[in-house]
Every structure is written in structure tokens, then in C-alpha cells.
Specification:
Elements: H1 2-23, E1 29-32, E2 38-41, H2 44-50, H3 72-86, H4 88-91, E3 99-106, E4 110-113, H5 115-125, E5 131-139, E6 144-155, E7 162-176, E8 179-187, H6 191-199
Parallel strand pairs: 3-8
Antiparallel strand pairs: 1-2, 2-4, 3-4, 5-6, 6-7, 7-8
């Protein structure tokens, strides 16, 4: 009963924050990530949600691996293969040898610096049922790897894990000196739609539909 009451309180807190966040556009709120990096939240919703995340997380990453700088095309191919195998957008299990230590991440809700803060922050956020299924990867002339993928699963917010409606994410991985130095994410649907779908799933019929799964590739069959 205590867990149920805590979960209900958490849900109403986030619903209230979602209402405020939908109406407010202001400066980012700085909060500690718990992984030796600062997170900046774009609105009260993510700032409130961050308080309910687990404090620590373990990732399957070799942090002692030497950096391996590669030409853009070779790096892009290695990253695509790694993403399809390790799905680090939701597991945090990055290929540390291909990431700069001062890697920067930003999406519409959160901004942080530090590759370890990023990896462990991802693992804290998503539970093991979450998936990052790739639609497409393409390398631009500016040496940016554009990844289109489908996010689904649950987030570790409080005692009640909130289920996400599957949606499409557009990710740009920036390269410099043979390593990944930045990640910029954009969502195919508004942040308030994502939040309301998770916090009030009975509203989903009135919101955007869930994203379909990517078609199987020949090497998946």
C-alpha cells in the first residue's frame, strides 16, 4: 500500500508538472545527474521526473579501453553495427573506445556533458524491457551520422515504471578527430504528447499514434 501511495503521488506530481511545462518555456534548470556530470532540464516536467530516478546504475562498458580514432565512414559503420547490437540509446552500453570523454548530449528535455554521465544516465532512465530499434543510419557530407530509430519500453521513474508509447527519434552523432563528440536528439512528436501518453495512457486515443516497428532486414531473418 505504501508503494502504491508513493506511485500515485509521483504520478500526480508529474501530471501537474506536465501541465505547467506545456504552458511554460523558460531557462533550463540545473540538477545533479548522480554520475559526476550536471544535467540541465528544459522544463519543470523533466526536473520533477529526475527526482524519482534511481541514484546509480551499472552499464556493460569497458571504461579502460583505449580510444580508437577512425575515418568517418569506418566510424559510421562501426557505430551502426554497435547500435543494432547493443541498443545503447536505451541501455547505455556504449562503445567507449569511439567516444570522446567530453562528449555532449542534448535533447528537447535534457542537456549534459561527459560520456560516462550520458551512459549511466541512460541506464538509470530506461528499464531492461526498453528497445531502440533502428530504421535508418546515414552519414552526411558534414560527417554527422544521422540515425532514425524507434524508442519503446518503460522508464524507471518511481515505484511504478511508466510505459512509453513507441515514438520516433532523430539522432545526429557528431564526429571530430575520429571520435563521437556529440549527440543531438529530436522527437517526432511533442514532449507533452510523450509525457501525457505515459502518465495518462487513457488519453492515447486522442494523441498521436504509436510508431510502427522497423521492417526486418535480411540479416535479421
Amino acid at each position: 500500500e505504501k508503494a502504491w501511495r508513493s506511485g500515485l503521488k509521483m504520478r500526480w506530481t508529474l501530471l501537474l508538472a506536465a501541465g505547467v511545462g506545456a504552458l511554460q518555456v523558460g531557462p533550463r534548470v540545473v540538477g545533479m545527474s548522480g554520475t559526476k556530470g550536471d544535467e540541465e532540464y528544459a522544463n519543470p516536467v523533466t526536473a520533477a521526473a529526475g527526482r524519482f530516478l534511481p541514484k546509480t546504475a551499472e552499464v556493460d562498458v569497458d571504461w579502460t579501453a583505449a580510444k580508437v580514432a577512425l575515418a568517418p565512414r569506418e566510424l559510421a559503420e562501426r557505430l551502426e553495427a554497435g547500435l543494432r547490437e547493443r541498443e545503447w540509446f536505451v541501455t547505455g552500453n556504449i562503445l567507449a573506445e569511439h567516444f570522446a570523454d567530453d562528449f555532449e548530449f542534448e535533447d528537447p528535455d535534457v542537456k549534459l556533458t561527459g560520456v560516462r554521465a550520458y551512459a549511466e544516465g541512460v541506464r538509470r532512465l530506461f528499464d531492461p524491457t526498453s528497445r531502440a530499434l533502428i530504421y535508418n543510419c546515414s552519414l552526411t557530407e558534414a560527417n554527422v551520422l544521422e540515425v532514425v530509430w524507434r524508442l519503446s519500453g518503460r522508464v524507471n521513474i518511481g515505484p511504478l515504471k511508466l510505459e512509453l508509447k513507441p515514438y520516433v527519434v532523430y539522432t545526429d552523432l557528431g564526429f571530430a578527430d575520429g571520435l563521437v563528440v556529440s549527440q543531438r536528439d529530436r522527437f517526432a512528436i511533442p514532449s507533452w504528447d510523450i509525457l501525457l501518453s505515459a502518465l495518462a495512457p487513457w488519453l492515447r486515443p486522442f494523441l498521436s499514434p504509436p510508431a510502427p516497428e522497423p521492417p526486418l532486414r535480411d540479416d535479421d531473418i
